[in-house]
Fold this sequence. Notes:
- The protein is of the alpha/beta class and 272 residues long.
- The protein has helices spanning 13-16, 20-25, 45-53, 87-96, 111-124, 144-154, 160-166, 177-189, 193-203, 211-220, and strands at 35-39, 58-63, 77-81, 102-105, 130-133, 221-228, 244-245, 250-251, 264-270.
- α5 links the parallel β4 (102-105) and β5.
Amino acid sequence: MTTPKSPLDETSDKSFWHGYTAFYEGLLPADISGLIIEFGVFKGNSVRWLFARFPRARIVGVDILPVQAEWPVDPQVEYRQADQGSEDQMAVVLADLPPPQLIIEDGSHVPAHQARCLRLGMDRLLPGGLYILEDAHTSLPSHALFKQELADASKGKPGQALQSLLHRNAAPRHATALSLLLGLEHVRRLSDEAARQQALAALDIGGHFDRQAIERLHRCIDSIRVYRRSTLPLRCYRCGSEAFDYHAYRCRCGVELLAEADSMSVAIVKSA
Length: 272
């Protein structure tokens, strides 16, 4: 039996590049009649997919841009303008809306913004709800956004963080949403309580998450699932071609098809 195509198959890199949608199908509920929030609207393709997938839901797209002409229009779809770089703006948007059943964070991809959304969003998410952090790979040390954030944090502080940028063998220690979620997932698999507490303490290195935030997330999370694409994309995000140089792992236009920092998504279920 052939699996029906998602409305995203031909329009969004969620499907043709990252391959997220197949991962999501095993996690998304059969129906949502409450609120869905997506951070990051871009061209509106993901909102269209969500509306097709959950026709009874109320969908709110949050973006730094005002409403764009290409964004879908429907009585069940609305938009809020907010900057993920502002703690106050994000808190106001979430407080002004009812608790959502699903949050998809697909905004700026800046690690600090991902961490802020995770902290505030998980607090607001309904018990049993699903939080999806897309493009979590921007928090890997090899990604340009991570390097930029680490460099910004190191300005005027020629300490360990800056040295990590200068020396390849020095591991950068910079708490991100990805590193925290991977750590919390690992803690859940430890059998010894003393080891779990020691691992939780090791997650507290300052930065985007203090000890209180770490413990709050640990208590409220039921499960963490991590996806990382291990096959080639359907087509190139830059040129749209399916003509690949398979042995070089590149599109014919030069785009790397299996980069270390690419195509990661994390799905978090909140405890009921």
